[in-house]
Amino acid sequence: xxxxxxxxxxxxxxxxxxxxxxxxxxxxxxxxxxxxxxxxxxxxxxxxxxxxxxxxxxxxxxxxxxxxxxxxxxxxxxxxxxxxxxxxxxxxxxxxxxxxxxxxxxxxxxxxxxxxxxxxxxxxxxxxxxxxxxxxxxxxxxxxxxxxxxxxxxxxxxxxxxxxxxxxxxxxxxxxxxxxxxxxxxxx
Length: 188
Hints:
Oligomer: single chain
Shape: elongated
Strand order of the largest sheet: 4-3-8-5-6-7
């Protein structure tokens, strides 16, 4: 059996995983895969639901193999703009909300503008909110703070952000493997 070039595979994975693709917003990941498949000389097409289908001719006496994969990731969607300019959200997929507290995100508007922000508890600091460390993390007790000078709902609307816009998660915590590679202490 021919051995896969591990560096090429790692490069492909890094490029693909760097494409924002929460549930319902996978068109950019699908387009990238389609481009890569065609560059390898294979033909492909999309079905009515937008899935990419690649058919590769095999040998007549060989078993038929099918591979299926999904390109969506976990994400959020703007549910509402709050009076103070923060964003209420709803989940896309099934992210575990307590793990998102303090994580960075990208808000992608319908016009294609991209803004960054931080997912936070509505009680983010124990020195200000005594319930900060014990408050349940849920869609009602978490919000997105946009990295723009916004003071109210109108300021956010002026940016083009509205209910239904996609919020992509940017995980910042290094994995154990990353810590080992960079020699970061395991408590980091």
